[in-house]
Amino acid sequence: MAGSKKILALCGGVGGAKLALGLSHILDSDELTIVVNTGDDFDHLGLRICPDIDTVTYTLAGIVNPDTGWGRAEETGSFMASLSMLGGEDWFYLGDKDLALHVERTRRLGAGGSLSQVTTGIARALGVGPRILPMSDDPVATMVETTSGTLAFQHYFVRERCEPPVSGFYFDGIDSARAHPDLLALLADQTLDAVIICPSNPFVSIDPILSLPGVRQALSDCAAPVIAVSPIVGGKAVKGPTAKMMAELGLAPTSVEVLKRYQDIVDGFVLDQRDIDDLEQLKTMVTYVDVTDTLMLTLEHKIALARAILDFSVSCQ
Ligand code: FO1
Fold first, then answer.
1. Looking at residues 100-125, what average pLDDT do you find?
2. Cβ(158) to ligand 1 under 6 A?
3. Cα 80 to ligand 1 centre (Å)
4. pLDDT, tens only, 224-246
5. Which residue, judged by its Cα, is nearest atom 4 of ligand 1?
6. Do residues 174 and 208 make contact, with C-beta atoms less than 8 angstroms apart?
7. Where are the domains of the chain?
8. pLDDT of 261 higher than 80
9. pTM reported for the whole predicted model
10. Ligand 1 midpoint to CA 158 (Å)
11. Atom of ligand 1 nearest to the CA of 58
12. 39 lines ligand 1 (CB under 6 A)
C-alpha cells in the first residue's frame, strides 16, 4: 500500500488474533494498533490472567499453539500435572511456558505497572512489533447470565464448557472503567485511516470494548471508516460459542443479526461468501458491503483477508 497508514483493530481472542496477524504482515509495525478485550481477564491461582491479550501476543510473536489458537506452541504440562496431583484447581489449563508470562505480568502489575505498560513490555520481549493495547487499564469482568445462574466468564467458558444456556451478559466495573486514553485519542485522530472490528464474538469480545464509557460515541463520530467483519460463516461461528449464544438469545445465527449490533457505528460490513443470501438485506442496513472468503485457515488466507479489508476500507470513505 502506498504511503503510511494508521489502522486500528478491535478484537477478542482467537478469531481476532488471526486477522491481526494478517494485518501485521501487510502493515508496518507503527501503522497498526490492536485494541484487545479485557473482559475475559481474571485472577486465578494468585495470578492475573489476560487470555485475549495473551492470545494476540502469542499469535503475533509466532509462538501460539496452532491446535487451540490460545496458549503456547510446544508447551509442556508439568505444573498442571503436579497441581492436579495435589488436588488443586486444574480446570483452567496453564502450560509451563505460559505460566511464566502470568507470573511475570502479576509481578509487574504488583510493582505498580499499568496493564498497558506491562502488555507493551511483554510484547516487546517476545518481539511483537504492532502495539497491543488493552481496552482499559481498569478491571472489567464479563459476567454471563445463564439458566444455572450468573457465571464469571472463564467459569462459563472453560469450567462449564459453554454448556449452560445464556440469557444475557453484563460487564462488571464498566461504568467506572475508563477506555484507554490512546484508544480515544486514535478514534479522534483525523489521520486515522480505518477502524476494523475483527470477526470476534460480538457479545463477549467486542461488546465490552464498545460498552466502555465514550467508545460507542467516539466510533460513531470517528472520521475514518469503521468496518466490521462478520464472525459467522455459513450460518455458524468458525470457533467458539457465538452461534450457540445467538440461538439461546433468540437470534438467528446470521450476519444480519451481527450487523444489527454494530449498525449505529459502522460504515462498512464484510461477510463471508457462504452467507451471500444475506447480501441484499445487509445492503439495506449499511452503506458499504463486501463479500469475500473470511475463513482464515492458513497464513495466506489471513493476509488475503486483511488485504481485502484494507482495500475495502479505502472504498468506504
Ligand atoms: N480455553 C479453554 O477452553 N480451556 C482452557 O483450559 C484454557 C486455558 C487458557 C489459559 C491461558 C489463556 O491465555 C487462554 C486459555 N484458554 C483456555 C482460552 C480462553 O479461555 C479463551 O480463548 C478466551 O478467554 C475467549 O476469548
1. 98
2. yes
3. 14
4. 999 999 999 998 888 789 999 99
5. 158
6. yes
7. 7-42+129-315
8. yes
9. 0.97
10. 7
11. 13
12. no
- Determine the distance from the C-alpha atom of residue 96 to the mean position of all C-alpha atoms in its chain, rounded to a whole number: 24
Whether 1 has a pLDDT exceeding 60, the answer reads: no
Q: Tell me yes or no: is domain 7-42+129-315 CATH 3.40.50.10680.
A: yes
Instruction: Decide if 115 contacts 38 (C-beta within 8 A).
Output: yes
pLDDT of residue 2: 53
51 CA to centre of ligand 1 in angstroms? 6
Residue 99, all three cell numbers: 505460566
- In this structure, the number of other CB atoms found within 10 A of the CB of residue 292 comes to 17
CA 94 to ligand 1 centroid distance, Å: 9
How many A from CA of 92 to the centre of ligand 1?
Answer: 7
